[in-house]
């Protein structure tokens, strides 16, 4: 199975960014009356985004082992912070930034781990 090449890493980051857009649509849906037309449009956006993500995730799993690919799901938290700040003008605290940095740092550390030698 494939390794974590730059192309695969970028693809996984994109796939998780697409997944994070579902949070954007659900937050937008919360602003409208239940079952109103804008509410239903937002829910349609959620379904479209999650369907697209499902396809992208399956494509990613063809190239990258699950144990490595799943590490990238944690980036959804970082993307969520970016959406909260840039789209909804929510306040991001130093604690949020620290947490995002820990997530990214942990991802970088775990990406670099080598599989243990079977003879060791």
Any overview of this molecule?
By secondary structure, this protein is mostly helical. The chain has one domain (6-112). The longest helix has 27 residues, at 37-63. The protein has helices at residues 6-29, 37-63, 66-69, 75-86, 94-112. It is flat. The chain has 5 helices and no strands.
Radius of gyration, Cα only, in angstroms? 17 Å
Q: How much of the residues is beta strand, in percent? A: under 5%
The chain-level mean pLDDT equals: 88
Overall number of domains? 1
Residue runs with pLDDT of under 50 for 5 or more positions: 115-120
Topology order in helix (H) and strand (E) letters: HHHHH
Shape: flat
Quaternary state of this entry equals: single chain
Major pleated sheet: none
First and last CA, distance: 22 Å
Class by alpha and beta content? mainly alpha
The counted number of beta strands is 0
Helices, by number, come to 5
Residues in helices, as a percent range? over 70%
Outline of the structure:
This protein is mainly alpha-helical. 72% of the residues lie in helices and 0% in strands. It has helices spanning 6-29, 37-63, 66-69, 75-86, 94-112.
How are the secondary structure elements laid out?
Layout: H1 6-29, H2 37-63, H3 66-69, H4 75-86, H5 94-112
Helix pairs in contact: 1-2, 1-4, 4-5
Keywords:
single chain, 120 residues, mainly alpha, 0% strand, flat
């Amino acid at each position: 199975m494939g390794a974590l090449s730059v192309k695969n890493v970028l693809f996984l980051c994109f796939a998780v960014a697409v997944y994070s857009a579902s949070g954007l649509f659900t937050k937008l849906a919360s602003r409208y009356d239940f079952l109103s037309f804008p509410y239903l449009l937002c829910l349609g956006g959620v379904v479209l985004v999650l369907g697209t993500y499902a396809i992208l995730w399956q494509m990613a799993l063809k190239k990258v082992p699950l144990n490595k690919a799943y590490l990238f799901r944690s980036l959804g938290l970082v993307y969520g912070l970016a959406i909260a700040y840039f789209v909804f003008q929510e306040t991001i605290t130093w604690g949020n930034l620290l947490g995002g940095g820990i997530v990214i740092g942990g991802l970088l550390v775990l990406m670099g781990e080598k599989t243990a030698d079977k003879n060791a």
